[in-house]
Amino acid sequence: MKTKAKAKAAASSPMEPDVGRWLLKLYVAGTGSKSVAAFANLKKICEQHVPERYEIEVIDLLLHPQLAKGDQILAVPTLVRRLPSPIRKIIGDLSNTEKVLVGLDIKPITA
Amino acid sequence: MTAKKQKAKSQAASAAVLEKCPTGIRGLDEITAGGLPRGRPSLVCGNAGCGKTILGMEFLLRGAIDYGEPGVFVSFEERSDDLAKNFASLGFDLGSMVKRGLLAVDYIYIERSEIEETGEYDLDGLFIRLAHAIDSIGAKRVVLDTLEALFAGFSNTAILRAELRRLFLWLKERGVTAIITGERGDQSLTRHGLEEYVADCVILLDLRVREQIATRRLRVVKYRGTTHGTDEYPFLIDEQGISILPITSLGLDHEVSNARVSTGIARLDTMLNGEGYYRGSVILVSGTAGSGKSSIAASFAEAACARGERCLYFAFEESPQQIIRNMASIGCNLARWQQKGLLRFHSSRPSLHGLEMHLVTMHKLVMQFQPDIVVIDPISNLNATSSEHEAKSMLIRLIDFLKIRQVTTLMTDLTRGNDVMASSSEEISSLVDTWLRLRDMEHQGERNRGLQILKSRGMPHSNQIREFVLSSQGIDLIDIYLGSAGMVTGTARVTQEAHEKASLKASEQKFAQGLKLYERKKAQLEATIAAMRMEFEATTAEINDAISDEKTRVVAELSDRDRVAASRQADATARPGATGGRGARAKSRP
Question: What was the ipTM of the complex prediction?
Answer without folding.
Answer: 0.79
